[in-house]
Amino acid sequence: MKNFIPAFIWAAIILILSATPGKNLPQIDLGNLLEADKIAHVGVYFILTLLLFRGFYRQKRLTTRNILWAILISVGFGIFLELGQYYFFPGRYFEFLDIVANIIGSLSSLIILKFINL
Asked: Which residues contact 16 (CB under 8 A, 6 or more apart)?
């Protein structure tokens, strides 16, 4: 379990940021090309998934099955938080495109999985 502490800490940070009212978050304007919010979602879930991979790697259990589990956990957590924003967090809103960005971030972690030593 200790191998997953970085992932748990990162997930807690995501939870805190997801519960923070949008007006209290810094606004970044990148023009019409890309929304900073979507880039942040990709990056945050990319990191979360890599940290889950790292936990399995440290346990010597980084198998195809556990790679899929890491992606499902990351994506599921993102969906759960989007629904939580809709139902429970004032000043926050459900956005389907945030879920898409979370999925892209999680899946894109697969690209570098082969090239880094976790």
From this structure: none
